[in-house]
């Protein structure tokens, strides 16, 4: 019997050009082109850095890898072409500039005008690292938070409103949706990731059963509970740290519909970010056809969670760039599964002609580079420990239930 091969990945960039596609820039960038329609998406998930041999040749426009004499927004947003690193001192020792002209560019206001490149490559000059000594450390000032229903929706950087007006919420969502939620209206109940859930019982008859949905939900919450109790083995040694206020997931029919739309494409690659605003995503497939959907759920979820025991995170429990980009040691499926503030889940299993395909999406999305995966500490003992106005503590599960 032919052995079944199971694959799961965040995304592996293609190794050959398969379409007659050409998209070039304008003006000084008219000779700078993308040769594949997915270049912009791949660049957005860091493939310019992870797979430069292919990307910098075939996705020059999206990777900004063409040679021009212009200011930093014409350079690569992902790859520093200069062997240069200048870091701060003391509390800022991990805050670095990756280009010798960072200080000059910051002085001519490029941190505001071109944040997608500058806040990644010129962190020291832009003061964009999160330390106690850096002015742009996430602010707790009420002036950066909304009022009324939006009182809990805040900007962490004073320039958020300016950046939002210059369309950075769309062009630089990874930074903006994490740090500028108020200005980007990312807390809006209009978003699938944050609006009130249509619960498991109200999902449509679309090929998934109540039992199958319950399996996805129960397995996710069981693993989150194991982590919260400090019982999950970490490849770096010992167990992952306890979680102080891990939220219990709820099933969401609208998110399931989004996962279904992508699963039915039967194309093993992540869905475009604009199709799942503020939603994370995990993918799994097996070459075995028409696998029982509950069995497929069990296989996929276990494979995702096993990344902790196989590759490890460590006691710091922060999703660093180094951790994210380790070669052949994926961790992003696990981290999205247990991301503290992610509490909504929708999944779909599709029987494709060449595989059984599992797609789960998560809201609000996790996997923000540089952020803690969850807050470490003793799990909740009272509702107040959850520090959430609409949360109840489940001591038995060590999870905070969102109402």
What structural keywords apply?
403 residues, alpha+beta, Pathogenesis-related Protein p14a, five-stranded mixed beta sheet, three-stranded mixed beta sheet, 12 strands, 11% strand, disordered N terminus
Can you characterise this structure?
This protein is an alpha+beta fold. Among the domains are: 23-58, no CATH class; 210-402, CAP (Pathogenesis-related Protein p14a, 3-Layer(aba) Sandwich), CATH 3.40.33. It is 29% helix and 11% strand. It has helices at residues 39-44, 47-50, 52-58, 60-63, 102-107, 110-113, 115-121, 123-126, 160-165, 168-171, 173-179, 210-228, 253-263, 293-305, 307-311, 321-324, 332-338, and strands spanning 6-7, 23-24, 33-34, 86-87, 96-97, 247-248, 250-251, 280-286, 344-351, 356-363, 391-394, 399-402. The strands form 4 sheets. Strands 1-8-10-9-7 form a 5-stranded mixed sheet. A 3-stranded mixed sheet has the order 6-12-11. A hairpin with a 4-residue loop joins strand 11 and strand 12 (399-402). Helix 12 (210-228) runs parallel beside helix 14. The longest helix is centred in the middle third of the chain and has 19 residues, at 210-228. Residues 1-19, 68-82 and 130-143 have low confidence and may be disordered. InterPro entries: Allrgn_V5/Tpx1_CS (IPR018244), CAP_dom (IPR014044), CAP_sf (IPR035940), CRISP-related (IPR001283), ShKT_dom (IPR003582), V5_allergen-like (IPR002413).
